[in-house]
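Amino acid chain
________________
===
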Amino acid sequence: MHLFIDTSVRGRIRLAAIPDDSRHPVDERVIEPSRDLVACAEGFFEPHLRRVRGIIVVAGPGSFSSIRSGVLLANLMSRFLNVPLYSVLADVATSKSQIVKSDLRYPASYRELREQIVRGGLRPVPYVAPVYDAEPHITLRPDRYRDGTMNDVTTQHA
């Protein structure tokens, strides 16, 4: 079984447990609006942890905070569970996410991901780096950093 984490869409968490055998259904949960990723993942993945053979994560592109949290969780889970880590881009993970007509239990994108792992087309990586869709919008208020440093001039002590 492989666990799947997708946080590429702001405000949505998509988690799945992909069985090794396509005769068994994919256990998938989409959480909108997104809540605490760790709590959602813990509750969803906990029954599957004994059978995990790998972690698949959507590395992006996506919003800074969303992608960063999903990738961080995948990196940590892979390390702690000592299982391979796989990285895919959002367009690969969602391009064929419609349900296959002949098998309503196994979405096509999950089947393709599993087959790529089995055939060796999707290789494990030691670490996944997030891929952002834009530069982060981090700004400093000029009035609080007048001295040109990162020292907050409003809280300096005499």
User: Anything to note?
Assistant: The chain has one domain: 2-155. The first helix runs from residue 37 to 45. Residues 96-106 have pLDDT under 50 and may be disordered. The CA atoms of residues 55 and 151 lie 41 Å apart.
